[in-house]
Structure formats: C-alpha cells, structure tokens
Design brief:
Length: 567
C-alpha cells in the first residue's frame, strides 16, 4: 500500500503502535529521588552521601589502609544509627577461612569453586541489627570491598566502588536510618561482607556462622553491575513460589523469571550464592545498564545515578516492612515450596505472576485453541502444501542467516574493541546505538519478507511458539511465559478474523501486538544489558521467534480490508 494512504486511512493502527512503543520504555522507569527531609521514607539524596565517603579511594581487599577506613566508617555510622550494642564485628583469620574453603570444596557443598590461595588477609564482616520481638528475621546484604584487580576481558580494576557495591552499601545504611526507630516483630539484620570481589569470602564465612544463620529466614542481596537504569530482581532461591508472593509487595518491581536461567550460564557469582548454598530463601538485585563503569576507575562518585539508587531502595523497602510486620514469615519452613512461579513485569509497577499449575493449564488451553484453528483451516481448505515445502524451509534459512549475522556483528565489534568475544560477556563501549540500528534494520527486513506471506508466517509463528511453550513449561518454566503469551495473542489474531466488526477487530489486534511489544521490547533491552553485545545473536533469536507472530499481526492490521488479508 502507498504510505500516504496508510497514514490517511490507518489512524487507529498507527495510534496503537505509537502508544505501545512509547509505553514500552516506561517499563524500566526509575523514580525521582525522595527529598532528604523525609526521614521516614527511603531517600537516595541521603544515601549518596555515604557513597561520597566510601568511594573517595579504591578500597579493595588488597588496599588494606583504604579498606580499613571504609570498614571503620560503616561501623561508626551503624553505631550512630543503631547503637553500639547492636553492631557486631566478625573477624576471621587466614587459616580459618582456608579451612572453611577446603571443607566446602572437598564436600562439593557449593556451585562456586572457592580458591583458598586468594586468602592473603583476614576477612572482616560487619553486622548491624534492629532487634525485633522475634530474634529471627530478614537479612539485607551487600559487600563493602571494591574491585582491586583486573578480571575478565575489558575490566581494568582499581574501582572506587561507588556503584559496585556502593549502591548496595548506601541503600543498606539508608534503610538502617529510616527503620532504626521501628519496633519490628521480626528482627532486621544488615550484613556487610568482605572480599566479595576476590572470592565471596565474607559471605562464605557468614554462612558458616550457624547460630547467626539460624535467625536468617529471608535474604535480600544488593549488587550493581552498572551505573544507571532500574534495579532488576535477577535471581531467586529455588522453589520460589512463596518468595515471589513476598516480592509482590515491592514498589516498581522489574523482573523476568527467565533471568535466573540466563544468569545461570553467565560467568558471574555473587554473595547470594553462599547463602543459597545453605538454603536461605531470598532475592538478588542489581543494576545492569552502564557496563562501561563496571570494575574500572570510572566506578566513582561523580558517575553515580541517584534515580537508580532510589529505585533499589524504594523497591525493597515495602518488602522489608511487610516482612517485619508479620510473625508468619519467621515460622519454620514458611518459604518452603515444591515449585517456582512464572513472573514478568508488564508495565511500570505491574508484576504478573502465576503458578506452575496455571502455566500447565494455560499451555493445554492454547493447545486446544490451536487444534480449533487447525480444524477451521482444514474445513476451509486454507492449509496449503507449500506452507511446509516452501515457506517453512525459506523461513528457516532466513532465521539461520540472521543468527549468523548477529554472531558476525558481535565478533567484529569485539575485534574493533580489542577484547575477547564471548556470547555472555563481550565488553566494548558505545555499542548501544549501533546494536539498536541493527535490530531496527532486521525488524524492517522481517516486515518486508513477511508482507506477502503474512498469513502463512503467522500460522507458522503460532505453531513454533506453541511448541516452545510446551517444551519450556515442562523443562524451564521460567521462560515459558514469553512463548505462551505470544501463542495466545497469535491465536486471538487468527480467531478475530471471524468477526465482522472492523473496529472490534482493530482493537483486538492492537491490544494483541501491543501487549506483546510491551513484553518484548524491555526483555530485549534487558537481555542486551545482561549478555552485552556478545549476545546479539540470542537477541535475534528471541526477536525472530516473537516476530513471526507480532509482525504479521501488525502487517495484516495495516492491510485492513484488502482481499484475503486473513485467509
């Protein structure tokens, strides 16, 4: 169709598309910092004052003088907030730490391989407590050491620790400040761990404190891998059904249940690992955007983003307040469950979650609806042989070709950036815009390729997504929502073709692809932040799988009443 005619005659589809594209950017919204005169509410303005102090110098495990200055500042601040009787120091000798590491490694008690040779100084943790009626309570945890050595490809070391983990440490100090006068039913523990950057040693030693850990009924770990953007809840303990029920209390939650699956294949571990090894239920948070600052001298106070800090604190504050207000959370085995929930952020502040049972019911329902479409097509004789002999093979070739393009693009970027190529961690600066352009061009190419065969592509897309929904529901349920809902909206598009009312059709189709884009655009961005530019091929896989449904719906809606648009 002529573009001028489209703009004149397709006002409703254009409005739907533009609104959806704009709204999708709000999913990753971070709030305005709260003023520092509001003493009962988390304020990133106050929190940043702590970062200014602790990030004046690199303070890694190896920088003993600077490391001690930060440790003393934390102790003094906690003494001031909580009282000296509620602040504890845990010091572990080199031999004690090595002995614990050997015990863990020899008995294969952790997924992380602790390195005893890295222990060259004592380990010193700090604990602040707001006592409750119950000694059992919630642990908030972050590490206070900065990066002091070069790590993976592209990392420079000598970080000032303003973000990693100044965001987590300052958030904890601010939470201690606003909650210090509470009289909680359940206690609040603020655990500042040592030597996370060199081997998770502080968290390991804390996990060995049996009497202390017996009081740990829930854990929130705070991390940062970037300078800005939302604080993602990117990892949970296993069998997280009740954990997610508590997380629903969060303000502006940003999370996707497929994140744990992605994180499990990345070469990253945090202090959270040591605690889940001893079966403490909990949540792990981190900022992701702004990798240029991660583990480099750029990780300093001048480059922090207080809106991201505000999001981290504001997101978890309601969780903590909920936990400390109800005795049920500290009862034995309260968080025990036999399954994980499926969950995702649909819009700013809107968290969708459901049980594994519901995911099974959903996929069975989709299968029945799909069989209905098959029966209709058989009756109407609209399933053509060329669908399998021509369209599908050509589609597979296009799919393979575009994935190869993604790999080549990432390898070229790694070469030009003089770093090692890795699908999960290729660290090169200023790749966002070129990658966005590549994704945009490929999206336009797919629209062009799908245009003449949009009805066939839609049917193939629904079939593919249904197959993936069934497979992931029974093997990797956290990832199933993307394929299940893509299938659902694709089936809606196929069924509404039977309606005679054009306005209802346009609204139904607009809502279908609108909701898919609201899910897909933030997910692609989040995956890019997590995987880096090395994972562009994976982004293209997700884009194509979803695009085989989304793009044909958009195409056919813009075609309007053209003959055989949906047949």
């Amino acid at each position: 169709m002529n573009i001028t005619n489209i703009l004149k005659n397709k006002k409703l589809p254009i409005v739907f598309l533009l609104i959806t594209l704009v709204l999708s950017t709000f999913v990753l919204y971070t709030p305005k910092p709260v003023s520092n005169d509001k003493t009962g509410e988390f304020s990133a303005i106050r929190a940043q004052e702590h970062i200014e102090v602790i990030s004046r110098k690199p303070h890694s495990y190896y920088d003993r003088e600077e490391h001690e200055e930060v440790r003393q500042y934390l102790i003094e601040t906690l003494d001031n907030y909580l009282g000296t009787d509620n602040v504890y120091e845990y010091d572990y000798s080199i031999d004690t730490v090595k002995s614990e590491i050997n015990r863990i490694n020899n008995n294969s008690l952790s997924s992380y391989n602790y390195n005893a040779n890295g222990v060259i100084h004592p380990i010193r943790n700090i604990l602040g407590v707001i006592p409750g009626t119950n000694e059992e309570g919630i642990f908030i945890m972050a590490h206070y050491d900065s990066r002091g050595h070069v790590g993976r490809s592209g990392e420079q070391g000598r970080s000032y620790g303003a973000m990693d983990d100044g965001y987590g440490v300052s958030t904890m100090l601010e939470l201690a400040y606003i909650l210090k006068d509470e009289n909680p039913k359940n206690s609040i523990y603020f655990l500042f761990t040592d030597a996370e950057e060199v081997g998770l040693y502080g968290a390991l030693m804390a996990s060995s404190e049996t009497s202390l850990m017996n009081n740990a009924k829930f854990l929130i770990n705070l991390e940062s891998r970037g300078s800005h953007g939302p604080s993602y809840m990117f990892e949970t303990s296993n069998n997280n059904h009740k954990v997610i029920e508590l997380y629903k209390k969060a303000s502006l939650p940003v999370t996707y249940s497929m994140a744990t699956a992605v994180y499990s294949v990345m070469p990253n571990f945090t202090d959270f690992t040591a605690m889940t090894d001893i079966n403490i239920p909990g949540l792990n948070f981190a900022t992701l955007a702004g990798l240029d600052y991660y583990h480099t001298p750029l990780d300093r106070y001048e480059n922090i983003n207080i809106s991201s800090i505000q999001h981290m604190g504001s997101q978890i504050e309601p969780i903590i307040r909920e936990f400390i207000s109800d005795d049920k959370y500290v009862t034995n085995n309260y968080f025990d469950a036999n399954s994980n929930q499926v969950f995702f952020t649909l819009f700013a502040g809107v968290l969708i979650s459901y049980s594994k049972i519901f995911s099974i019911v959903l996929v069975v329902t989709l299968l029945l609806l799909y069989i209905g479409i098959i029966l209709i097509k058989v009756k109407e004789k609209t399933i053509k042989k060329e669908l399998l002999t021509k369209t599908l093979p050509k589609g597979l070739l296009v799919f393979l070709g575009l994935v190869i393009v993604g790999v080549i693009y990432s390898m070229i970027v790694a070469f030009l950036g003089k770093t090692t190529f890795s699908i999960t961690y290729t660290r090169v600066s200023n790749t966002e815009i070129p990658t966005l352009i590549l994704i945009g061009l490929i999206s336009l190419l797919l629209v062009k390729l799908f245009n003449k065969k949009s009805n066939d592509i839609l049917f193939i897309g629904v079939s593919l997504n249904l197959l993936l929904a069934i497979l992931t529901t029974f093997t990797l349920e956290g990832a199933s929502f993307l394929f299940a809902f893509t299938t659902l909206f694709g089936l809606i598009a196929l069924y509404v073709d039977k309606l005679n009312n054009k306005l209802i059709k346009d609204i139904a189709l607009g809502i279908s692809y609108g909701l898919m884009l609201l899910m897909m655009i933030p997910i692609l961005y989040s995956f890019y932040m997590a995987l880096t530019v090395g994972g562009v091929a994976i982004l293209l896989v997700l884009l194509i799988i979803n695009g085989t449904v989304t793009f044909p719906i958009i195409i056919n809606q813009f075609k309007g009443d053209e003959k055989n648009a949906w047949k």
